[in-house]
Amino acid sequence: MSKIEVTPHPARVGAALVAAFAALSLAGCVTPKPAPPPPPPVVVAPPPVKCDPPREPQDDAARHLLGTQDRLAALNTADLTAEASRPLEGASVEQQVDQALAMSMTHNPGDLARAQGVLDQVLHNNTPQADPWRSLARLLAYRLGEQKRAEDAVERGAQQLRDAQRDNQRKLDDANAKLEALKAIERSLNTRQSPAASSPKP
User: Fold this and answer.
1) 147 and 112 in contact (C-beta within 8 Å)?
2) What is the pLDDT of residues 97-140, one digit of tens each?
3) What residues contact residue 138 under an 8 Å CB cut-off, 6+ apart?
4) Inter-residue contact 82 to 103 (CB < 8 Å)
5) What gap in Å lies between CA 178 and CA 167, rounded to an integer?
6) For residue 18, what are the CA distances in angstroms to 6, 7, 45?
7) 65 to each of 1, 60, 69, 127, 173, how far by Cα in Å?
8) Residue of 97, 105, 102 lying closest to 132 (CA atoms)
9) 199 Cβ partners below 8 Å, 6+ apart?
10) What is the pLDDT of residue 194?
């Protein structure tokens, strides 16, 4: 059997081409959907950095002085006296203030005056090393002045009490002496009257 070739109709071919072209045109006009935006980046906050403000030299001096006072307050009398008796030759300003503080806490005779003398040296020290300590030395000197006045007032009161006790004792001794003198006179009078009373009448 022989093959029969079927030739498509030109009108159908043209219609198919027009449909394909239209389909391609429509496909080119369709706007594709935009891609979703990327997720925002995760921002990790850095840990907070604590920066202490720089301390002034006066702050360091005050901290040192408070620590020294706590340390000295925990010492017994012998150790505190040893701290107050250290030689001051070649001592730094810090060591001078520490020793003046120790002297003010011993209550030994003369230590308070010595402490005031040491603080006076610090107050008249014009070197830069003394600058952070000068206001503290002035405060300590004022406190020691008040302590000295209080101790002087107590000593004056004690002296007045001792004077009053001596005066009262002297008055008491005088009164006892007068009483003894009166008793002696009374005894002598009784002795004189006794023979006269026992003698017979004439």
Assistant:
1) yes
2) 999 999 999 988 889 999 999 999 999 999 999 999 999 999 99
3) 123
4) no
5) 16
6) 22, 19, 62
7) 127, 9, 6, 19, 55
8) 97
9) none
10) 60
Stated pTM of the model: 0.56
Query: Residues with Cβ < 8 Å from 112, sequence gap 6 or more?
Result: 103, 104, 144, 147, 148, 151
Nearest to 69 by CA among 146, 165, 136, 167: 136
- Residue 9's contacts (CB-CB under 8 Å, 6 or more residues apart) are none
Reduced to 3 states, what is the DSSP secondary structure of residue 155? helix
Radius of gyration over every alpha carbon of the chain, rounded to an integer in angstroms: 56
Q: Which residue has the tokens 């000197």?
A: 141
> Would you state the torsion angle of the CA atoms of residues 96, 101, 104, 108, taken in this order, to the nearest 10 degrees?
-70
Place of tokens 């990327």: 38
Rounded CA-CA distance 118/123 in Å is: 9
